[in-house]
Description:
Layout: E1 8-12, E2 18-21, E3 27-32, H1 37-46, H2 48-63, E4 75-78, E5 81-88, E6 95-97, E7 100-104, H3 111-138, E8 144-148, E9 155-158, E10 163-167, H4 175-187, H5 196-205, H6 209-219
Amino acid sequence: MTVAFKIAVKHSKRKTASIYLERDGSLSLLVPENTTEQTINNILKANEYKIYKYQAKRELLNEHATKREPVNGQSFLYLGRNYYLQFNAETKEIEFKGRYFYAPEASRVTLDGLFKEFYRKRGYKFIPPRVKKYAEMMGLSSEEIAVLELQRRWASCSDRKRKVNFHWKIMMAPASVIDYLIVHELCHFKHKRHNAEFWNEVDKYYPEYQKQVAWLKVYGAALEV
């Protein structure tokens, strides 16, 4: 008997099975490469309660998901606030002035790409000084900072290169959320795992981090173009 859950099953080189609620609200089951279908069904049956709990979280995420249209007056986020789209025949890229985003008149099809580039460029200006500030507070250094597409993660880091990566989408979030993500990744230079020592370190440099974690869980789905 197959368990009727809408969940993506992914095989990988791992020793144990894990169920994840992805950032977009979808569910994934990660299993070792040679896991049989019967074993997968058994895992799903044994985790029914967890899956139903995750599905409830997914519904909450979807409540705040926003479908934005390429029309004048459509709102787009920047640093936690909504601004309004206006198409302009003289504009060649996304321009941010006052309460408005101005976009090229002929860009309705390519608008997503233009906004992604806008957020990426703004991220390279906004994020590095804040990384430097917190890194100095923590007695750390970061050799490289990147703003790019990170799939399901808001941010990541590489201890080998002392590199910190941020998803361009976080430029739609409030500055307080961005600061939390910066501190979070920098703390991984000291503690690899999300254990008690790690969260104590985060709390030391960003005491209100739990509010930002909660904000991302509720409103993260709205950070779309």
